[in-house]
Amino acid sequence: MAIIFGGTSGLGAATAKAFANEGAKVVVTGRDEVAALLFRSQIALVVANMIVNHKKALS
Q1: CA–CA dist 32, 21 (Å, integer)
Q2: Angle 50-1-11 (CA atoms, 0-180°, nearest 5)?
Q3: CB-CB neighbours of 28 under 10 Å
Q4: Number of domains in the chain
């Protein structure tokens, strides 16, 4: 299992994708709600074992 903080863009997103592609269960967090939703919609087409949420969903 991998938890990626700031994983909705850039290096964090690439790291999250790499872990998921290797079969890890991945949890991604991010501060930008729009970026989180966009990342979730993009990654759902490729990877099934990743959880992406915005911080508001966790409180």
Answers
A1: 24
A2: 65
A3: 26
A4: 1
Those residues whose C-beta lies under 8 Å from the C-beta of residue 17, and which sit 6 or more positions away, are 43, 46, 47
Q: What pLDDT sits at residue 53?
A: 61
Residues 3-45: tens digit of each pLDDT? 899 888 899 999 988 988 888 888 888 888 888 888 878 776 5
Q: Residue 48: name the closest of 28, 13, 18, 21 by CA.
A: 21
Domain span at residue 27? 2-58
Nearest one of 24, 51, 57 to 39, comparing CA atoms: 51
Q: Which one is predicted more confidently, 48 or 11?
A: 11
**Residue 7 contacts residue 29 (beta carbons within 8 Å):** yes
pTM of structure: 0.69
